[in-house]
Amino acid sequence: MQISEISADSTPGSNTSAFSGQIEMQYTFFLEKFLSITRYYALFQSVFFLILVLEVLGFFCFLSLPSQSFFMASSLAIIFLTAFAYFVLRFYFQAKKPEQFLGLKQEFSDALESSIAFEKNSPNYHVSIANALHKLASYLQGKEYSYYTLPQNFSTMQSLISKLSAYLHWEDVQKMKEILLLSSIEKHVSLVKTSPTDLEAHASLAGAYLALSTIYKPHAQSQGLWVSSEYFSEKMKKKFQQVAYRAVEEFKILQDYASEDPWIHAQLASLYHDLERPQEEILEYETMMKLAPQEPKVLYRLGVLYFQQGHTSKGLRIYEKLKKISFAQAEELISFYDAYSILEQEIP
Predict the structure, then answer these.
(1) Of the candidates 131, 296, 207, 240, which has an alpha carbon nearest to the alpha carbon of residue 285?
(2) Tell me, what DSSP letter sits at residue 218?
(3) Cβ contact 260:291 at 8 Å
(4) Measured between alpha carbons, how far is 60 from 339 in angstroms, rounded to an integer?
(5) DSSP letter (8 states) at residue 148
(6) What pLDDT, on the 0 to 100 scale, is given for residue 66?
C-alpha cells in the first residue's frame, strides 16, 4: 500500500465510528459559544466607538455656545474619561479572551473524551480526538465573513457587512483555528511517540501540519474578499515557514519508507513552492517525472520551473517532450521562455 492510500484514510477530519450525533451536538455547542464570546467583544468595541463619536460631536456643538468654556472643559473631560475606560477594559479583555478560548477548547476536548469508546491513550483514541479537533477548525473556515447577515431586501449591502464582519472577527477566528489545530497536532505527536515507525501516524502528522500552515495564507483574497494586511506581515510569514518546515520533515520521513510514491513528492514540491525554494521544487518534479514520464501536469510545471530559473536548455527538452503529449500545454509552456531575466539577478 502506498502512503497516498494510507493518508486517504488517516488525514485529519476522517470519519470514525466513535463519533455520533452527540459529537455533532458538541460541534454546534462549541460554535454557538465561540460566536457568542466573540460577538460580545465586537459589541464592546462598537459601543465605545459610538460613544466617543457622539462625545466628539457634542464637543464641537458646544463651540457654538456663547459661554462655551465650561461646556468645552466638561466635554473634553468626559472624552478623556471614556477613552481611559476603553483602554483599561480593552487590556483586560485582551488578557481574558485567550483564556476563554483555551477553556472552550478544553471543554470540547473533555466532552470528546467522555464520548469516545476507545481506550485512553490508545492509537485510535489519539486519532479520534485529533480528527475531531481538525474538523471543528474546518467549521471555522471563512466564518469571519458570515457573523452578520442582512435580510434579502438589503442584499446589496451584504458585501459591506461581510467586510465589517471580517474586520471585527478575523483575528479571533484565526486564533481559535490555531488553538484547535495545534491541539490536533499534539495528539498526532502523541501517537507518533507511541509508534515511531508507523507510516500512518507520520502521514497523519504531516497532514496536520499542512492544515495548520494553510491558516497563515490569505486564501480569501483569491475570492475577492477583504483580507487583513496582517496576513502579509513578517510575523505571519514566519509562522507559516515554521509549520511548513515541520511538514517537510514529516514527508521526508515518509519518503525514506516509500521513495517511489508520487504523492509524497507532490506534497514536498507544493511545500517547496510555498516556501519559495525553487531548486528543491525542481528536484521533486524531476523525481515525479521519472515515476510518471508521460504525466503532462508534471512536465508542464517542471518546464515552467526550468525557464523561470534560467535552465533554458532543460526547459526546451521538456517542451519537445510535452508537445508530443499535449500540444496546447506545450504552447503555453513556451510562453515562459523569457521568464528568467538576467537584470533581476545579482551579477558578480
Answers:
(1) 296
(2) -
(3) yes
(4) 59
(5) -
(6) 59
Question: According to the model, what pLDDT value does residue 68 have?
Answer: 63
Phi, psi of 196 (to 5 degrees): -60, -25
Q: Please give the grid coordinates belonging to residue 293.
A: 514520464
Three-class secondary structure of residue 262 per DSSP = helix
**Directed axis angle between helix 3-10 and helix 262-274, to 10°?**
70
CA 93 to chain centroid, in Å, comes to 25
Closest CA to 307 of 345, 333, 274: 333
In the predicted model, what is the mean pLDDT of residues 245-272?
A: 95
The per-residue pLDDT for 112 is 85
* Residue 196 DSSP class: T
Cα(222)–Cα(225) distance, integer angstroms: 7
Q: What is the DSSP letter of 221?
A: G
Distance between CA 223 and CA 67 in Å, rounded?
Answer: 56
Cβ-contact 23, 132 below 8 angstroms = yes
The identity of residue 333, as a single letter, is L
Q: If you search the block for the grid coordinates 464582519, which residue do you land on?
A: 165
What pLDDT is attached to residue 347? 41
Residue 199's nearest CA partner among 273, 260, 263, 251 is 251
Q: Is residue 13 helix, strand or coil? A: coil
Half-sphere exposure of 310 (CA within 13 A, CB side): 5
Instruction: Name the grid cell of 284.
Output: 521533486
Letter for the amino acid at 118? F
